[in-house]
Each structure stands twice: as C-alpha cells, then as structure tokens.
Design goal:
By secondary structure, the protein is an alpha+beta fold. It has 14 helices and 29 strands. It has a six-stranded parallel β-sheet with strand order 3-2-1-4-5-6. Helix 8 links the parallel strand 8 and strand 9. Helix 1 packs antiparallel against helix 4, helix 3 packs antiparallel against helix 4 and helix 3 crosses helix 5. It is globular, with a radius of gyration of 24 Å. The structure holds manganese (II) ion. Manganese (II) ion (MN) binds next to loops.
C-alpha cells in the first residue's frame, strides 16, 4: 500500500489500539504528519476506558507535541486508519467509518479492510510507517520530532532495540536523527514502582526444567518491556540457558525469550513457540513474541498458556540434531547427487567499488554480514536476494561471468553499508551476472527433522535445517556440509545426470 492512496479522502481519523503504547502513538503520529502536510482534515485518537497514564508516554506526547486524543464519543470518519492494530480486533474500540485502512505489524487476523499493509515480520509499526513515509519522499530530517517518535516507538517495541530483527527495523535504527536528550530521558522513565514490584514477584515464581536447562516465568499483566527486563535477569542465573517470560494481557499473550547457548537462537525458539498461532522474532540471544488470545483458544482449547509454552519448550529441546562439520562422517545413504540449474546469479567484486581494507556490513533480509573488503573475496547474490562471500578461486571454479545484468524482485534487497562513512550502496545495480560452470555438484537429502549444522567455515553459528530443507555436502569436499533452504533448493538444483 502507498500512503498517497489515502489522500483521496478529506476527513480522516487515525486510530491507535486501546491502551496505546509508544509504537502505536509514533506510527499514528507519522501518518498524521503526512496527511496534515497533504492539507487533510485529520485527527489522531485512541478508544477504550483508560486514558494514557504511563509516565514515559505522557512525556513522549508532551515533549513531541503529539496531538493524540482519547475518543469516547461515537465517531463517523470518511476514512479510519488503524495503526499498530487491526480494525475488528478486541483491543480496538469500534468506530463507524466509510472506509478502513489497516497499517500493522502483527499477524494478519483476516479482517476485511479497504486498504491494508500488514508486515508481521517487522518488529515495530514505526518502522513500517517510516518506510511508507520514505516512499512518499517525506523528509524526516526536517521533522526531528517525528523522527524521535518513530525511533522511540521502535525502541519500545523491540525491548530497547535488543529484540530487533527485520532489516527495515535496523534501517530505521541506523538512519534516523533524533533528539538524543529526550530519548535518554524517556529510557529512564520506563518503570513505575508498581512495575518493579511485579518484576520482583515474577522472579519468585519461576518454573525450571532441569534437562532442557530452561526457565519459564509468568508475570502479572504488565508493560511488555518489563518482560525483557525480567528475562535478562533470569538468563544470568548459572543453570539457566534458555528462558521464556510471559504475561496474559486482555488481547493476548506477550512473551520474551532469551538464550545464552550457541546451539539455540532465541529468535528461532520464539518463532517455534508461537508457530501457527502468533508472530515472533528477534536475534540470536534475545527475541519476543505475541499470540492473539483468540488464536491460543483455537489451537489449545482448555490449555493454560503456561502449559502450552512449557510443552512447546520441551518439544523444541527434544526434537533437534546437532551436526558439526569438522566431525562429520559422510554417509551416502539416502543422498542424491544434484547440480546447479544453469541460471543467472549475481556477483560483486568488492574491490571494484570499495578500497581494500574497508570495513563493511552487508544487510540482507536474513542477517547483517560483517566483512572487510579483500582483493580475492567476491560476494554472491542468489535468486532470493541471499548473499554470501566466496573466495575468487572457488568462484572461478564454480561460476563464469556472463554479459548482461542480474535482476531479481524481492521485497527487501541487499545493500552494502560502509562502516566509516555511513554510505549505503544497494548491491544489485553493482552486480554482474554469472552462471554455474556445472563443474561442481552436491550430495543432498531432504530433511525429515530439525538439524543444526555448524559448518566448516563458521563453527560458532549454526545453519538451521527444518523439515523439508536439504542437507548438502560438496562432492569434492565431503567435510563441506551445509543446509540449503527448501525453496532455494527447488529453484536452484536438479538431479545430476549420472
Ligand atoms: Mn507495535
């Protein structure tokens, strides 16, 4: 969806969910500012019984002059835009509206709307609004109040940026110029004494599972940020390797997940815990998740959330094989031989665009990859926009450069961030095309259970193979074992002739 599509209406109301949080307020403020600039009659509201009372939100609203109003009277808008929530949900007071637009980052609950932009992979609605504003050429450099609001919205929804996951969230974090003094003040206006008491009570009532070295803690209903605060503390306990802290709110279950072992990434654990019922994400050590109440009831009738999460945790800990490339003994059993389908891929010779020795970070949908520009290191770009470094020698054996461009259309395209200057260079316009030489092939088999592979080139981080993904071994190096995602395998490989 483009924001400009909304400008055909004149009387527009933007609605945050009831008990709005910083992310909802910031996202609403962003849409408000844009429409105000388009000379629209626009109003920013939230419904529900409670008025905003948390100290940080009051400070945010006042310091940034955010014109949000508590709406209790019926309303009839030509267009109603719900932000950080979906029209028809339990935590969104109903108001009549001619047409409805939904801008949100939770999972799509399937309610109808005339306009919809739901990105459940994003850690915050603020990042989505920031992206939408960018598409319209809105200059945030000229609007530091809004920039600060969006940054703070992201900050609060990703547990002080610690559970950040999507590259658009990371882009907002890295690119925006905000009022530093205000953010510092907001960061330290976070807890009330009552919330401190809730945290203390929660820490006394943990449940510990010895075999899996994990702890589960339920808190009383509280601001989701308290969950992160508690889980950070819980993880510091010597015998706790993984922990999940959750609370039941009127509209669903919020959870915070932590891991301090390299065999479990917190974001994957969070995704697993809410799989099919909610959304979750973050990164290796810290992650969060949310399950809408109705979904939990559907999935686990008469199941108490604590039991449900405990069961998922046990299942996660039990159902996984660890594989270390250095100790791997090749077994041909069940493996087929495959070769790359001759199709265009992209590659970039880094020294063509940057000085040798330059520190860079390559941002992709999957991860931020830290690298140094070296003479013989190339960067490959795959059909899904996936990026990986390759040594010149290996490249020349496996691929040959061909004329023409390499093009793909994906939602998020990779870019090179130059550390020192902050310059951002999109990769695709700088990529050349290449084709597989057909000289290399792999043995591979489809996985029927979860496998984590610590590869030969990175013994610290594993590659996750889920059911349906492929375990692959280079035929010319039987220690080079790795995972190829199901979709990429099907698009890129075919059975070898002999
Ligand atoms: Mn949010």
């Amino acid at each position: 969806m483009r924001l400009r599509e909304l400008t055909r209406f004149d009387n527009i109301v933007i609605q945050c969910h009831d008990n709005p949080d910083a992310d909802a307020v910031a996202a609403g403020f962003g849409i408000y500012r844009y429409l105000q600039g388009q000379k629209k009659q626009v109003k920013l509201i939230y419904g529900g019984r409670e008025k905003i009372h948390k100290a940080n939100l009051l400070l945010m609203v006042e310091a940034l002059d955010i014109p949000i109003q508590h709406q209790q009277e019926p309303l009839d808008a030509e267009l109603l835009v719900t932000v950080d929530c979906q029209y028809g949900e339990g935590n969104v007071t109903h108001f009549d509206a001619g047409q409805v637009a939904v801008i949100d980052h939770h999972i799509d609950m399937g309610h109808g709307a005339d306009f919809k932009d739901i990105r459940s992979g994003y850690g915050s609605c603020s990042a989505l609004v920031w992206q939408l504003l960018g598409q319209e050429g809105y200059d945030l450099g000229e609007d530091k109040d809004l920039a600060t609001a969006l940054y703070y919205g992201l900050y609060m929804d990703t547990n002080s940026l610690s559970e950040i996951s999507h590259p658009v969230d990371r882009d907002l974090r890295d690119c925006v110029k905000f009022h530093e003094g205000l953010i510092l003040k907001l960061r330290n206006t976070n807890l009330s004494l009552e919330e401190m008491r809730i945290a203390a009570d929660a820490l006394r009532s943990y449940e510990y599972q010895e075999e899996g070295h994990f702890a589960i803690v339920k808190t009383q209903p509280c601001d989701p940020n308290i969950l992160g605060f508690i889980s950070d503390l819980m993880l510091q306990v010597d015998i706790v390797d993984l922990c999940v802290i959750y609370c039941e709110l009127p509209y669903g279950i919020k959870l915070s997940v932590r891991s301090c072992v390299r065999t479990v990434r917190a974001n994957e654990l969070a995704e697993f815990l809410v799989q099919g019922v909610g959304n979750g994400g973050g990164h290796a050590q810290k992650a969060g998740g949310f399950i809408p109440k109705t979904n939990l009831e559907l999935m686990a009738a008469d199941c108490e959330p604590g039991r449900y999460l405990y069961g998922r945790m046990e299942k996660y800990c039990a159902g996984c094989e660890l594989l270390y490339a250095k100790d791997y003994v090749f077994d041909r059993e069940g493996m087929g031989r495959y070769e790359k389908i001759p199709q265009r891929l992209g590659f970039v010779r880094l020294v063509d665009i940057l000085e040798e020795g330059t520190q860079i970070m390559i941002r992709t949908l999957e991860a931020d990859i830290e690298m140094t520009v070296e003479r013989d290191v190339y960067v490959m770009v795959g059909v899904r926009g996936e990026v990986y470094p390759i040594r010149k020698e290996k490249f020349e054996h496996s691929y040959r450069a061909v004329a023409g461009e390499f093009r793909i259309t994906e939602d998020y395209l990779p870019s090179i961030h130059v550390r020192e200057s902050g310059t951002i260079l999109p990769i695709l316009p700088r990529a050349h095309a290449c084709m597989p030489t057909g000289k290399t092939s792999v043995f591979a088999k489809c996985l029927d259970h979860t496998v984590k592979v610590f590869t030969a080139w990175d013994g610290e981080n594993y590659m996750l193979g889920r059911e349906g993904d492929y375990l692959a071994v280079r035929t010319d190096d039987l220690h080079d074992v790795y995972i190829i995602a199901a979709a990429i395998f099907e698009e890129s490989y075919r059975m070898a002739e002999n």
